[in-house]
Amino acid sequence: TWFSVSATGNKSITSIQFLDQQTGFCASSKYIFKTTNAGTNWDIKCNPNNSLGGKLSFSNNDTGYYCNWNGKIYTTFNCGETWDSTISWGLTTSLSSSRSNNCIVVGIGGKILKTSNSGINWSCVSSPFGILGYLNSITFPSISVGFICGNGGVVLKTTNSGNSWTAQNSNISNVLNDVYFINESTGYAAGSGGIVIKTTNGGLNWISLSFVNSDNLQSLYFINSQTGFVSGNYSMFKTTNSGLNWYIVLNDDQIKSTNFLNQYTGYCIGTYRSVFTNQTHLFKTVNQGETWTQISFLNSIFFNNIQMINETIGYGIEDYKVRKTTDGGLNWNVILDKGGHAVYFENENTGWIAGYKTTNGGLNWYSQYLDIQQSWLIQSILFINNSTGFMVGGYEGTIFKTTDGGGPLIPIAVNSFFEVIPNNYFVFQNYPNPFNPQTKIKFDIPANAKGQSSNVKLVIYDLLGREVTILVNEQLKPGTYEADWDGSNFSSGVYFYKIITDDFTETKKMILMK
């Protein structure tokens, strides 16, 4: 039997824990409450920034943890009287602590965080479900070796041209907005809190450089091994000694998108956005960034990114437009009514934004396959040669790779589990089903008679048998795999998913119900 003992006055209680018969805690969409009389009365102890709810866990009568769905983790060391926010990882959903100094936090997309010292420090440990969090920037110092950075201090590395990625220990939890490598060994990453980190051994170890006085660094660029630039809110900083010291060379609002044509000539933008106006200022340097000259003031334009191809031609991307300049940045004309955050041109004719490509300087564009809810989630685009390119972004750490110049783009971050090698092919029913708008498709791939890998294709069809999207199209080792499909851009109804291999085919039905 159950009976009501009290009410907190808040409509959504998402977690509750009692330490003994009298003392307990509960969390709502706005507050953390405490009772010392078995729930008869509740007192507000913390307002975790309109957290949309979260989870509580106490490891002893003094030490407790709270993670909210906005990504902040709070700790208390005095039985919940006061709470302090330690880090922000993004989209955490649950946690568990033991009767020691350990606590584990899990989140959307499979992120697993751990502390062994009562929340003073946290690290992202390996997860069978992949990488969670926005991926913000990608760089390739060579054809084989590449790096990606993202939220929560995430740094990923590939040594096989992006076919697989491994997490590096950056030793920080800051958002990393940009990454730049001079060669395969020496690289930098920059992000929130004015943090700049550096590695000299290919990402195996990272050190924090001198603090840069900016709350959010967004752009990072080096023109040689000694000279580089980092910029963010209000300032651009320059170093001439490999990041040991930094000094201001430019002041403006939200400086970002730095790129150099050569050792001396470079460009960047300063952007300002409010409810009343959007502005972009384009700056140019001809002396290795010692001084910058504003060459245009663009009213009612807010560029997320620009790329100057030469001193005459450049491209810029807004939320809903792509623009081009043919006069060195003085004027920018709309060439496509699609937008986003990322643009990449390998020359003045051939370029990409998320889902679209041009081969004639923006005169014509054609759509490319892109299985993601909204193209503006793509944060960075990079091609390492004429055919092989990458797009990264999305709140689930999405990585897309192409080997044919951009179409179709195939998501390569399929979740895999290799603990048990299946004996036979098997396709599980998608879960959830019906779904809205996302579902998971799990399947087993055994070792085949020809070798240890199989060419596997996972295709989605509509009720009329028309191909909707391709989730997987690659060689897979024996194991159990799980692919995600987002039906946000598709109408409600019956769909089919089909596994196709050299010697096995199976189709199953699923229902998208919005």
Read across the widest sheet, the strand sequence of neighbours is 1-2-3-4
Taking pLDDT < 50 over at least 5 consecutive residues as the criterion, the unreliable ranges are: 126-132, 409-419
How many helices?
Answer: 0
- The 3D shape can be described as globular
The value of Rg in angstroms is 25 Å
Share of residues in helices: under 10%
Averaged pLDDT, please? 83
Strand content: over 45%
Largest sheet descriptor: 4 strands, antiparallel
Total count of strands: 48
Structural class: mainly beta
Distance between the termini: 37 Å
List the main descriptive attributes of the protein structure presented here.
514 residues; mainly beta; four-stranded antiparallel β-sheet; 0% helix; globular
Summarize the structure.
The chain has 514 residues and is mostly beta strands. Helices cover 0% and strands 47% of the residues.
Explain this structure to me?
- This protein has no helices and 48 strands.
- The relative contact order is 0.06.
- The radius of gyration is 25 Å and the shape is globular.
- The two termini are 37 Å apart.
- The protein has 514 residues and is mainly β.
- The strands form 12 sheets. The protein has a 4-stranded antiparallel β-sheet with strand order 1-2-3-4, with no helix packed on it. The chain has a 4-stranded antiparallel β-sheet with strand order 5-6-7-8, with no helix packed on it. Strands 9-10-11-12 form a 4-stranded antiparallel β-sheet, with no helix packed on it.
